[in-house]
Design a protein that fits this description.
The protein is of the alpha/beta class. Among the domains are: 199-293 and 555-656, Aspartate Aminotransferase, domain 1 (Alpha-Beta Complex), CATH 3.90.1150.10; 310-510 and 522-552, Type I PLP-dependent aspartate aminotransferase-like (Major domain) (Aspartate Aminotransferase, domain 2, 3-Layer(aba) Sandwich). Helices cover 32% and strands 10% of the residues. It contains 21 helices and 17 strands. The protein has helices at residues 16-19, 22-35, 55-58, 92-98, 160-168, 170-179, 199-203, 262-266, 294-307, 317-337, 351-366, 385-394, 411-417, 440-449, 469-472, 497-502, 537-553, 555-573, 601-610, 623-627, 645-656, and strands spanning 275-276, 279-280, 282-283, 345-348, 372-376, 397-401, 422-428, 454-457, 476-480, 491-495, 513-516, 521-523, 579-582, 591-596, 613-614, 616-618, 634-638. It has a 7-stranded mixed sheet, with helices on both faces. Helix 10 (317-337) crosses helix 17 (537-553). The radius of gyration is 25 Å and the shape is globular. The protein starts with 15 loop residues before the first helix and ends in a 5-residue tail after the last helix. Mean pLDDT is 75; it is low at 1-142, 146-162 and 190-257.
């Protein structure tokens, strides 16, 4: 499907009401460029200012006599540190030209001085050379640094939320609205600006809010002419301004185009057909891991039974077969993500290792004292701790985007945190403890206006909705095989070609080298330079089989089916006495975290297990997210496309039968 113009930055067509405010928006946006300046001195060498003006701002009408916005290539250069592995290809000049369109700073022979190495290099492994910055830039007018060094962990709900943010940071608020008007109200004083009612979050009872014209299936690009489908149960809606919800992918088939036969799907999963504690298994722990279709079991079994060999390093037939199967798995990942090349796909053990690779390779080469890393409040620990370790090692600072009472990030606060000191933004696509679907397209667009790369943690989104790294313009995207019905111990990192090329290896060993002496090592290019040692070959084969299976069923059909199932389940939870749902974002996927008044979470989980129902109890590796809502633990039920309304009914019946004291 052809994407509408301006979609990349989440800018819908302007309504007459929006156009009425064009003069005001134009004046505010111009003020950003005329008066915005850094709150602290930049690191040496002096960095040329220069993020690109986002397309959404360029398209806004100007006030009378207003000058047009500056237009130039994106990017803020990073201060190099550490040593560049000898033999890293291509050279600095090529990388600079490929990056975002301007000459590099800190690359010998190009504009700007060479920066001394901040860390000693091991003579046995590295030659001393500056790693070229990933986002070089030419001098140009700067975007603002709003001087916003921290964000509160809790903010008021209801109409007061946007009023407070706009009052504290009016220019950041205007900038955020220009980039993502559907996420930020133009008039924060208008009643019901964002979260008008939080009754469900507070009491566990649903309250119907005004409908918006957005598609029910916010994760798909539905046909604009398609009639709105009535939800299967009352939606948990925020009272936002009318406008399209964030559009997260460019894979545009209608969510109702193909019928979804859940009973046919269930026949493909042998683990679902067993009894636990005398009851048929109801698997509602899918956010932790998913069961495997017979196609995945067969693929891994056949590999070990017929093809088992190491790869790339032998001339015999089984090695050739194994290599073909392994690289076939890589091609399946490329297709699944719509990546430009399979060389952009790195196999790793999972999401955690993939984030650690980016933090240790990209991060240590590009992040230093005074730099900043941005994450959100609702991240998995795997997207917090690696960045904390990096910050501790480099003297950088971790900045956190707060969330509102529904568990939705506050986009204006994110805009206020971005500055010339920001070196990377790393955010989850779907929050594992809350189910919130983050507006990653808009998050990426705003970061790119500052020349800042973005990592998307897609561990929880990959099994539930189509992903398109080119449509999102993600710099990095990571996910785990076992979350997408594949084997454990395998996952993938997508990285833009020029970013992976500029990054040094993280781990050393066989397979990732061209030549080794006791004075220097010459490395292969990506992805091999990040895949030291014997990889999980059978895991890659099984992951490829899992993604092929999902492709045959169709993620648009899966997403639409799960959407209605989640609506059905949340409506039922609202009727459970004393239950409070943790996370009531308008855009949700799969996850239902809750606590029940007077009940211990572990006792609830054991009670459900006695009825054959598998859920998760604990902090879900997301303590900051849960503490935002005043709890350290919750019960978490999570859906997949093989779950049914019958599963949900059994689950709800068991909750109603909890012993009451």
């Amino acid at each position: 499907m052809t994407m509408p113009e301006g979609l990349a930055f989440g800018r819908p067509e302007a309504s007459p009401a929006e156009l009425a405010h064009s003069d005001l928006i134009g004046r505010l946006a111009r003020e950003i460029y005329q008066q915005g300046q850094a709150a602290s001195q930049p690191l040496a060498p002096t960095l040329p200012a220069g993020p690109q003006v986002p397309q959404a701002l360029e398209g806004l009408p100007q006030g009378p006599g207003g000058a047009p916005f500056p237009s130039a290539a994106t990017g803020i250069p990073s201060v190099p540190s550490g040593g560049q592995p000898f033999g890293l290809q291509p050279d600095g000049s090529t990388l600079a030209a490929r990056s975002f369109g301007g000459p590099a700073v800190g690359v010998p022979g190009l504009t700007g001085p060479t920066v001394p190495n901040r860390a000693p290099a091991s003579p046995a492994f590295y030659d001393v050379a500056a790693i070229p910055p990933v986002h070089p830039a030419s001098p140009r007018p700067a975007l603002p640094d709003f001087g916003f060094s921290s964000a509160p962990t809790a903010l008021p709900g209801g109409p007061d939320l946007h009023r407070q943010v706009a009052g504290d940071h009016p220019r950041a608020n205007a900038f955020a609205h220009a980039v993502a008007p559907q996420l930020v109200p133009a008039d924060p004083s208008r009643p019901g600006g964002d979260v008008a009612q939080e009754s469900f979050a507070r009491t566990g009872h649903l309250s119907r809010a005004p409908e918006t014209p957005a598609s029910d299936y916010y994760f798909l690009n539905a046909d604009p002419g398609q009639a709105r489908k009535a939800p299967a149960s009352p939606r948990i809606e925020s009272a936002r301004y009318p406008g399209p919800a964030p559009r997260l992918t460019a894979q545009g088939s209608s969510p109702v185009a193909a019928p979804f036969d859940v009973e046919h799907v269930r026949r493909d999963f042998p683990a679902l057909h067993q009894s636990v504690n005398g009851h048929p298994l109801v698997w509602l722990d899918n956010a932790a891991t998913t069961h495997k279709p017979q196609a995945v079991i067969d693929a891994t079994s056949e590999f070990y039974g017929r093809h088992n060999s190491n790869i790339h390093r032998a001339a015999h037939t089984l090695a050739a077969r194994s290599t073909d199967l392994f690289e076939g798995g890589r091609e399946a990942v490329r297709r699944f993500l719509n990546a430009p090349s399979k060389d952009d796909i790195v196999f790793l053990r999972g999401t955690t290792e993939a984030i650690n690779l980016v933090a240790n390779s990209f991060g240590r080469a590009n992040i230093g004292p005074g730099d900043e890393i941005i994450v959100s409040t609702i991240e998995h620990h795997a997207n917090i701790v690696p960045w904390q370790l990096l910050a501790q090692a480099t003297g950088a600072t971790l900045r956190v985007i707060p969330v509102n009472d529904r568990g939705e990030i506050i986009f204006e606060q994110y805009a206020a945190l971005l500055s010339g000191r920001t070196k990377i933004v790393s955010v989850t696509h779907v929050a594992n403890a809350l189910g919130t679907v983050n507006p990653v397209r808009e998050i990426i667009a705003l970061a790119h206006a500052y020349g800042v790369p973005v990592l998307v943690d897609a561990a929880q989104s990959s099994p539930h909705m189509p992903l398109d790294v080119q449509a999102l313009d993600a710099d990095f995207l990571v996910f785990s095989g076992h979350k997408v019905f594949g084997p454990t111990g395998i996952g993938a990192l997508y990285g833009k070609t020029h970013l992976l090329a500029a990054m040094p290896p993280w781990q050393g060993g066989g397979h990732m080298i061209e030549d080794v002496t006791f004075t220097r090592t010459v490395y292969k290019g990506a992805p091999e330079k990040f895949e030291a040692g014997t990889p999980d070959i059978a895991g890659a084969v099984g992951l490829g089989a899992a993604l092929d299976y999902l492709e045959r069923i169709g993620l648009p059909a899966i997403a639409a089916y799960e959407h209605d199932l989640l609506d059905y389940a949340q409506a039922g939870l609202a009727e459970v006495k004393g239950l409070r749902l943790i996370g009531t974002a308008r855009e949700k996927a799969s996850v239902m975290s809750f606590v029940i008044e007077g009940q211990e979470n572990e006792a609830v989980a054991h009670h459900l297990d006695a009825h054959g129902i598998a859920v998760r109890s604990g902090h879900h590796c997301a303590l900051p997210a849960l503490r935002r809502f005043g709890v350290d633990q919750s019960v978490r039920a999570s859906l997949a496309f093989y779950n049914t309304k019958s599963d949900v009914d059994v689950f709800l019946k068991a909750l109603h039968s909890l012993p009451r004291h």
